[in-house]
Write a structure and sequence with these properties.
single chain; mainly beta; 19-stranded mixed beta sheet
Length: 306
């Protein structure tokens, strides 16, 4: 029996889409859950038979990819994947959404299976469709990545001449040592924040192949919601009046920090719901839009910068 406690995953950025580099040195993916593999559609014959049986069933297109979760870390894997989501490269510790597409080869290893049971599963052409960032009231901040891949092949061994690096040891970022700013002012009443970055990837299938072409890509969108104790009408008024605002959320692990800046957001809701006789919380969904000064709609900053 294979156990999750002995599951490992590794990745390397591809130079050519869906081609694993030769003699790859793959970095470890530190993860909290992992569900990358292949699904297939089924095609069933519509033939009508007098005996009421189905005459044929076959498997259709290969839908490779899936999702996996991580804690927010000052870590090579986390930073590489965020760069893929944002479509850009880090520059002196800063990342702004851009136009560069990145793909990865990702290797899964089931450490308690022998070679006869294909313990290595290789996916190529892995691109990052979306990322969900969740920041709870008091706890570890997490992300969930959703991907589309071109191929998925289980095998007995890792790619030829590959090096599988050990995972980093940095600690995760938490929310209770962080700082939140709304509209440029520090605010201490936020109870929860959720942010989704979405590239709008979609598979493209053609006659003669079960594998997708490189997926199509739509606009980079940023949306989410914040919840806060209802102590002031300031944020509610911004929703009611359609006033631009900004959000800045900094997470920390000791001296290491990770900061998300959304320089121009529009609140798209402002429900003030009373559910019991306790504190009232207002929920404010939002959408981030392009900011000329930032030259993007979202910016990440890490410390240390390398």
């Amino acid at each position: 029996m294979s156990n999750g406690s002995q599951h490992a995953a590794y990745a390397i950025e591809e130079v050519t889409y869906a081609v694993t580099p030769t003699t790859p040195t793959m970095f470890a993916i530190r993860h909290t859950d992992f569900d990358l593999g292949m699904d297939k559609d089924t095609l069933q014959s519509a033939e009508i038979r007098a005996d009421r049986n189905v005459s044929d069933l076959r498997l259709g297109q290969n839908k490779c990819g899936g999702s996996f979760g991580m804690e927010v870390l000052n870590d090579l894997g986390f930073e590489n994947f965020m760069a893929a989501v944002f479509g850009n490269a880090w520059s002196t510790g800063t990342l702004v959404n851009g136009l560069t597409r990145k793909s990865f080869s990702i290797l899964r290893h089931f450490g308690d299976l022998d070679s006869g049971n294909k313990p290595y599963h290789l996916l190529t052409g892995v691109e990052f469709g979306s990322c969900d960032l969740k920041i709870p009231t008091g706890g570890i901040a997490t992300v969930s990545f959703d991907t589309i891949a071109k191929t998925y092949v289980p095998g007995a061994t890792a790619p030829a001449s590959s090096t599988l690096s050990a995972p980093t040891t940095t600690g995760p970022m938490d929310s209770f040592t962080g700082v939140v700013q709304e509209g440029g002012a520090t605010i201490g009443v936020i109870t929860e924040a959720n942010v989704k970055f979405d590239n709008g990837l979609d598979r493209r299938f053609v006659i003669g192949s079960k594998d997708t072409l490189r997926p199509s890509q739509k606009k980079f969108t940023v949306s989410g919601s914040i919840s806060c104790y209802y102590e002031s009408a300031t944020m509610l008024d911004k929703f009611l009046n359609g006033t631009d605002s900004s959000l800045s959320i900094q997470l920390a692990n000791g001296a290491e920090t990770f900061q998300l800046d959304l320089p121009k957001v529009k609140y798209t809701g402002g429900r003030v719901s009373v559910k019991d006789d306790g504190p009232i919380v207002i929920s404010l969904p939002f959408t981030a839009v392009y900011d000329g000064t930032t030259a993007g709609s979202a910016k990440l900053t890490r410390n240390p910068t390398t």
